[in-house]
Design goal:
375 residues; mainly alpha
């Protein structure tokens, strides 16, 4: 049995901190300095989601050396699918309540608004592929599952030599669409499994299947590459957001998804993490990282609740959004609250009871069809 790579879970915990900070708009709107700091946080934090896909592909490759790939993929898809199912069941009634409340305040037809939002949430394409029909943040889970399924499909037909070139081709289209629309206009969403997750999962799989273990002796070189690509990544986003547009940092923060240098930055960091497998051992970070997926699922609920509290306080004449202390507290409390709820859900019988009425059995039928298994 291979030893645990503590550094992967440790960096997962850090990645979640960046994701929360990005979603909480940490320091954004606090003048030019606040916007500049937010731009740096947003840029550095772009490693986070790719890191989860890289890890997924890498662990899949490692598992393939000692277990039947179809069995691993089946278990992986059932686990991710179950988590996504819980998330959809939890958020679906909440988004309907939000739609009803907003429409009622505006004096509109509440019934029609709720029905329209329900139909939007249950859109087959948005629900099963893009994963954003109920809540935008949930896109990550279907993409993670589908990306592994795509990699497995290539592995199953023994065409792995084409895996990375094909995945990279799709990803280039996605990058051009997201950050260089002046060069190409793609008429559909590209932050998905095919144009995003497939690439990073493929890179992770290739690193794992090449039986290459980054040496600790060269970890300094990998870290230097990470810092260098990170600096180039920041420069690229600054040029795209300010030099080419003529805007200033005081006017706002340049918002984009991922750019051409994101793969270099994220992959260099991943290789560095592999070269230091005990990084974080003896701290609480690996433990935090082991709960990262559930923290990701829960954190929007906590974040929106805290933003609601901030809005209520603003009605009393206090604008918390102008306080740097509140910005820090918002991110910190969101992370801590999401962790607390995650622990509650996973350490009580709530999920075990829910599993009796959720989609595990249905998922198994679908998954078996995808990976060639039988009931």
């Amino acid at each position: 049995m291979r030893e645990r790579i503590y550094s992967i879970d440790a960096v997962r915990a850090v990645a979640m901190a960046f994701i929360v900070a990005i979603h909480a708009d940490l320091f954004r709107g606090l003048g030019a300095t606040g916007n500049a700091v937010n731009l740096v946080i947003d840029t550095v934090g772009r490693f986070a989601v790719p890191f989860f896909f890289l890890t997924s592909g890498y662990l899949f490759a490692r598992k393939c050396t000692r277990t039947e790939p179809a069995a691993y993929v089946r278990a992986h898809l059932e686990r991710v699918g179950s988590i996504y199912g819980y998330a959809v069941l939890g958020y679906f009634p909440l988004v309907l309540l939000v739609a009803a409340g907003g429409t009622a305040r505006a004096g509109g037809d509440v019934s029609s608004a709720v029905l329209a939002r329900a139909l939007e949430a249950l859109s087959p394409l948005g629900l099963l592929y893009y994963g954003d029909s109920v809540l935008l943040f949930l896109w990550f889970l279907p993409s993670l599952a589908i990306s592994i399924a795509l990699v497995y499909a290539v592995v199953a037909v023994e065409k792995t030599r084409y895996l990375l070139p094909v995945a990279a081709t799709f990803h280039v289209v996605g990058i051009l669409d997201q950050s260089y629309p002046m060069l190409v206009d793609v008429p559909f969403v590209t932050r998905d499994a095919l144009f995003f997750g497939f690439f990073y999962t493929s890179v992770g799989y290739c690193i794992g299947s090449w039986q290459w273990s980054p040496s600790r002796d060269r970890s300094g070189l990998y870290l230097a590459a990470t810092v260098t690509f990170g600096a180039i990544h920041l420069a690229e986003r600054y040029v795209l957001g300010y030099v080419l547009t003529g805007d200033s940092i005081a006017q706002g923060v340049y918002v984009t998804k991922y750019t051409a240098t994101t793969p270099l930055f994220a992959t260099a960091l991943f290789v560095y993490v592999l070269s230091r497998p005990t990084l974080g051992k003896g701290t609480g970070l690996p433990w935090l990282g082991s709960h990262a997926v559930w923290i990701y699922v829960v954190h929007p609920l906590v974040l929106f609740s805290l933003v609601g509290v901030s809005g209520a306080v603003e009605l009393l004449g206090y604008d918390l959004g102008e306080s740097a202390l509140w910005h820090v507290a918002l991110s910190t409390l969101t992370y801590a609250g999401a962790l607390a709820i995650s622990l509650f859900l996973t350490r009580t019988t709530l999920l075990r009871r829910a599993s009796r009425v959720t989609s595990r059995d249905r998922l198994r039928t679908v998954v078996n069809a995808m990976v060639g298994g039988r009931n």
